[in-house]
Design goal:
Length: 100
């Protein structure tokens, strides 16, 4: 898995680079429609990042992210799930795009 790159925007004028080693990727079977493959392929992706320990954020950015994302966090971990595609590769891309 490659580092996650976040484009420049409000609060991150230079963008961000989250090291791949700080991202936790888990795969599972996706539910819902999708044909026979949905029951045999681990196409659902969960991508997690611990905001408290990531080196990608400054202390100011970390405090802001933890405050704004508090309702969506499990402790200090932000987890994004993607299962809308039949392909694991497409779901990996979708999860990374959402996290960015």
């Amino acid at each position: 898995m490659d580092d996650l790159r976040v484009a420049p925007g409000p609060g991150i004028p230079d963008g961000l680079r989250v090291p791949a080693g700080e991202l936790l990727e888990q795969f599972s079977r996706s539910s819902g429609p999708g044909g026979q493959g949905v029951n045999t392929a681990d196409s659902r992706v969960q991508l997690s990042l611990d905001l408290a320990s990531t080196t990608a954020l400054s202390d100011v950015q970390r405090t802001r992210a933890l405050g704004r994302l508090a309702p969506s966090l499990a402790g200090t971990v932000l987890t994004i799930a993607a299962s809308e595609h039949r392909s694991q590769r497409q779901n990996r891309r979708a999860a990374r795009d959402r996290l960015a």
